[in-house]
Design a protein that fits this description.
Helix content: 10-25%
Bound molecules: N-oxalylglycine, manganese (II) ion
Shape: globular
Radius of gyration: 17 Å
Largest sheet: 10 strands, antiparallel
Structural class: alpha+beta
CATH topology: Jelly Rolls
Strand content: 25-35%
Order of helices and strands: HEHEHEHEEEEEHEEEE
Number of helices: 5
Distance between the termini: 51 Å
CATH superfamily: Alpha-ketoglutarate-dependent dioxygenase AlkB-like
């Protein structure tokens, strides 16, 4: 009966990279909170981090702004990329966005130091449309989504280096997202030690707002 056991497992919602408070929320978000482990090859990971490192190194890590969602970070918004990186971003666009969606022209690059973390927030609907897609580099991390009205409903996404995550629709609007700090970085029982992490985040433009996108999301 090993065969039917495997079949039953395969039909359960969720995966090795997504956990949730229950089967209903997993099923409800299975197309709107998505993780694709190994989206980047090792070469592609290196291409991106080698290109980003000198630009990030010029900046200082920021801490403890009283209202800030992000602690221990430096960031940049990048619009000029090497050809190799453009090909990677093109793959992200095809994988995560509908052909009709327009992307913010500047890609958000966020560098979290080992103690850095992102508190729960929902990206501003003024500056960001229905879809957020992020590549993770260097360190694994755990992203937690919590329903803004019903905090008992949550998901955890395991973001390994080279993975792509996509938040769209309900996962983007009805759930907050956060990146857990090292002390709290668990995927279920599994400890996910945090070190420095770089994310490369593409966002769609809010719909019905033609013209110049605002400078930041
Ligand atoms: C953000 C954010 C997630 C990430 O900058 O708004 O949620 O993957 N970033 O770094
Ligand atoms: Mn965010």
């Amino acid at each position: 009966m090993a065969g039917s056991g495997r079949l039953a497992l395969r039909t359960l919602p969720g995966s090795g990279w997504v956990r949730g408070s229950g089967p209903a929320v997993l099923r409800r978000l299975q197309d709107s909170a998505v993780v694709q482990p190994g989206f980047l090859s090792k070469d592609e990971e290196e291409t991106l981090s080698r290109e980003l490192e000198p630009e990030l190194r010029r900046r200082r890590y920021e801490y403890d702004h009283w209202d800030a969602a992000i602690h221990g970070f430096r960031e940049t918004e990048k619009s000029r990329w090497s050809e190799a990186s453009r090909a990677i971003l093109q793959r992200v666009q095809s994988a995560a966005f509908d052909p009709g969606q327009t992307l913010l022209s500047r890609v958000h690059v966020l560098d979290l130091e080992p103690q850095g973390y992102i508190k729960p927030h929902v990206d501003s609907v003024k500056f960001c449309g229905a879809t957020i897609a992020g590549l993770s580099l260097l360190s694994p991390s755990v992203m937690r989504l919590v329903h803004t009205q019903e905090p008992g409903q949550w998901l955890e996404l395991l973001l390994e280096p080279g993975s792509l995550y996509i938040l769209r629709g309900s996962a983007r609007y009805d759930f907050s997202h956060e990146i857990l700090r090292d002390e709290e970085s668990f995927f279920g029982d599994r400890r996910i030690p945090r070190s420095r992490r770089i994310s490369v985040i593409c966002r769609s433009l809010p719909e019905g707002q033609p013209g110049q996108p605002p400078p930041a999301c």
